[in-house]
Write a structure and sequence with these properties.
The structure is a homodimer.
Chain A lengths: L3 E8 L9 H17 L4 E3 L34 H10 L2 E9 L5 E8 L5 E6 L19 H4 L9 E4 L2 E7 L6 H8 L5 E6 L13 H19 L2 E6 L1 E4 L2 E4 L3 E3 L5 E4 L6 E8 L4 H5 L4 H4 L7 H4 L10
Parallel strand pairs in A: 1-2, 2-3, 7-8, 8-9
Antiparallel strand pairs in A: 1-14, 3-4, 4-5, 6-7, 9-12, 10-11, 12-13
Helix pairs in contact in A: 1-2, 4-5
GO molecular function, one term (chains A, B): hydrolase activity, acting on carbon-nitrogen (but not peptide) bonds, in linear amides
Protein name (chains A, B): Putative amidohydrolase
Pfam families (chains A, B): CN_hydrolase
Chain lengths: 311, 311
């Protein structure tokens, strides 16, 4: 019997700085209803789905940014989303800025089952950007200022008759992200992102290049680990800062099976057969037959670039 | 001052089983002369450049296959290639089946400087295929029968004013290959391949899919490590067994800057500016700022797939 997960990649159009959580949650609920109508049983929303992409704003006093963070999940504003998911029997994943009871800040995603229970949490590992205001950039990208690197690693959960893992935005550019999950047998990686349309340090790198790198990274991760990848954008112009969009679903062969062509709220629904992962996992990417970990040591020994080993 | 390596990706058309080394070396020399005319200072030939792709032939007695291997490099048949390279001041890399003095068999590539001295040797890590005759396959792929996995790891050498590493064929599908070299600062990865046009275990996967996976793997490896990748095919029909071709050069941004459109002997020449690797290495793939090796441990702890870690 095929193991089908009908996933809805639920792109959010821009969220302006002034828009409140209740308004965003209402938009997310409308997308969930649309996803349900289209037969989905699992909906995936972007990174930082509840707010604008606030790391573009510099604030000297970090504590003044805490209003962008969620101290409880669900909280008063997000409870209606959980209620709706439970009512529809819809599993979900979304990202938000997390403030822990002991004062830590993470860029977080959760996995919620169809009863509304949070069964998995992932905290973003690869924070891009910088800590201090950078006058050289066309726009700021202060994730390293407002977040700590995640402390969860890349777990994979038994979820919806399969094995599901999470990543967030810049994580998708790092092959280690997919491989750590691949070594747990992952069959579907879900990830959200907020990617500016222009490289803040190289203006010539515009939206087509940015979309190219995004697709390349998701497709390679899918193929090289024989997994579905569901990548969901926050898109469009947030207070004049343009995010590129490019919500897409990649099959375990590395092929894009669907991509949203717009920058608005919208769902891309696809029935993903988890058994399509089997061929790759049993042949060319049968890790136990082909991997040679004795030659991979630098990957976990070195953080940065070191001396070349050839002599 | 720009650090330009003008590389010639020297594709070989098919080598029939009956063709001898001297004849192949003469073809390689013609390509080297063409490369020189086009301004190249470094020529890269395919995997197993001297012979047909013999792992397609099953032989119960392995020793009977030793005639495909080189016991000396250079040897009598290959000395003219080294002589020509020295005469032209051309650095080179090519692959061959290596038989060591103590009886080991490797799928090997070498890096030869412009004086004809071998300064680097790489032995293929990721051997595809199988050990025993497999009646289920449309064609045999017996690399695991005739070769041992390489014992060199993935060194990077100071070469031609830059940092150069090697890989062979199936290695290019494994992100670990590029990352181990990336952690040594690699600026150009050269690799040769012999890739059948059809998947021997899934006939529906034909040449377009095979070229897609090839390009995807080379482009992702280049982008994610900010390195040039030079991938060189043996192409066309060897005694009725078709190899896909697809010789290409990828820039450190992941873009294909040139690809040979045919399956014959031919060179693709491109001036590769090694300084184009700097932007990626200093920004989004500045490993020392962004990598989190504490979360990569499974990559070197597990060979194959193990239990999922989510709970």
């Amino acid at each position: 019997m095929a193991r089908i997960v009908t996933v809805a990649a639920a792109q959010l159009g821009p969220i302006q700085k002034a828009e409140n959580r209740a308004s965003v949650v209402a938009r997310m609920i409308r997308l969930m209803e649309e996803a349900k109508t289209k037969g989905a049983n699992f909906i995936v929303y972007p990174e930082m789905a509840l707010t604008t992409f606030f790391p573009r704003f510099y604030e000297e006093d970090r504590a003044k940014m805490d209003h962008w963070f969620e101290a409880a999940m669900p909280g008063p504003d997000t409870q209606p989303l959980f209620d709706k998911a439970k009512a529809l029997g819809m599993a979900m994943s979304f990202g938000y800025a997390e403030l822990t009871p002991d004062g830590h800040h993470f860029n977080t995603s959760i996995l919620v089952d169809k009863t509304g229970a949070i069964i998995g949490k992932y905290r973003k590992t690869h924070l891009p950007g910088h800590v201090e205001f950078d006058p050289e950039r066309t726009h700021q990208h202060l994730e390293k200022r407002y977040f700590e690197p995640g402390d969860t690693g890349f777990p994979v959960w038994r979820f919806l008759d399969g094995l599901v893992g999470m990543a967030i935005c810049n994580d998708r550019r790092w092959p280690e992200t997919y491989r750590v999950m691949g070594l747990q047998g992952v069959e579907m990686v879900v990830l959200g992102f907020n990617t500016p349309s222009v490289n803040s340090q190289r203006g010539a790198e515009g939206i087509e290049d940015r979309l190219f790198h995004h697709r390349l990274s998701c497709q390679a991760g899918a193929y090289q680990n024989a997994t579905w990848v569901v990548a969901v954008a926050k898109a469009g112009s947030e207070d004049g800062n343009h995010l590129m969009g490019g919500t897409l679903i990649v099959d375990p062969n590395g092929k894009i099976v669907g991509e949203l062509p717009h920058e608005e709220d919208g769902v891309l629904v696809h029935p993903c057969d988890l058994d399509e992962t089997v061929f790759g996992k049993e042949t060319i990417f049968d890790f136990k037959r082909h991997r040679r970990i004795e030659h991979y040591k630098l990957i976990t020994e070195r953080v940065g670039v070191g001396e070349p080993l050839g002599r």
